[in-house]
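Quick one: structure tokens for this chain, please?
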Amino acid sequence: MLSFWLVAAAMTIMVGAVLARAVLKGSTRDISVRAASDVDVYRAQLAEVDRDVARGVIDPADAERVHAEVARRLLAADTAAQAETRQAGKRRAGIVVFALIGVALAGSLATYMRLGAPGYGDMALSDRIAFAEEVRRTRPAQEVAQRSLPDAVLPDGLGDQYRELLIKLRETVEARPDDLEGYTLLVRQERNIGDFKRALAAQRNVVRLRGDDVSVADLETLGDLLVLAAGGYVSPEAETVLRAVLARDPSSGIARYYLGLMLTQTGRPDQAFRIWDQLLRQGPETAAWIEPILFQIEELAQLAGVRYAIPEIGGGVARGPSQDDLDAAAEMTPAERMEMIGAMVSGLSDRLAREGGPAEDWARLISSLGVMGEWQRASAIHTNAIEVFADDKDALEMINAAGRRAGVID
């Protein structure tokens, strides 16, 4: 850390010296002009004396004495002017140097205090990834986050009748812990008034009562309420629920949005950016997660080191052949496979090379090339994908699984 400040100070002094030199040249030139004016006056007097002698106005003896006196004054003026120029230049240069250095140091320090991280040294990429993983592993539990927030109160404008019905519904489901319909209704009502803690408690009971028949929508609601009840924080429990949603429905927008949010909260803007960018491209524009993504993704792209322009919402691109397409193609002749998959694979490959994309698309391309018998190309793309997603464990598992299906790795 000390070496950083030494280098910064040295660079500031060097820049200040260069600027001071430029200013000094200008100030010395101004003083030299004034000194030259005095010298020119004396020289003009000497020339006038010579003209007077030539016209016979003064005697040569008197002219010699005047000439000697003016010459003496000329020499003294020239010597004084040079000394004044040097002294004034030094004074002004000193002032300018210190002023420039002071302004540069103050500006640099102010900028660093605002944008930098005082007290922290630079971290290698591997260290940052390890640090982010540690933050993710040790982040607070759901209960800790909920306890840090105040309990919700019934809104003033709720209406006496609605208030009485809500209180009665709470009492009813508390007395009948196996009332699935009552808990389902209570989740909606508590959510409507913004009491997410009570809504979460009710949804936990919905999931408990549904048991093995719990739906993806039930789990999505549970994950959503876990985040809302924690004030927008994605806890380890919320992450577990969201990953359970994705295991059953990889296209779940709300689960992917919240996992992206979790990654931003734990120091992985690069991974979060890829997830959110894909959600924007897939749309639809009316999806609940589009607006919050638009509000944050440009800053997220900067943190991820990506030059980014907001894509067309829902514009998307053909995502390549589906798994059903691949299964059907496996039973076709080589010519039929090439005709069926060739165009889609080509489009997917071009898009990934041009724009990049999520791990799912890379895995699909590798699998497709394996079905088509282009194992060398599949192997090269698999190697490239491993480099792109080297720090994403889930993505690596998906890509390696595709590599095994394509026969490019054991």
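The two ends are 47 Å apart (CA to CA).
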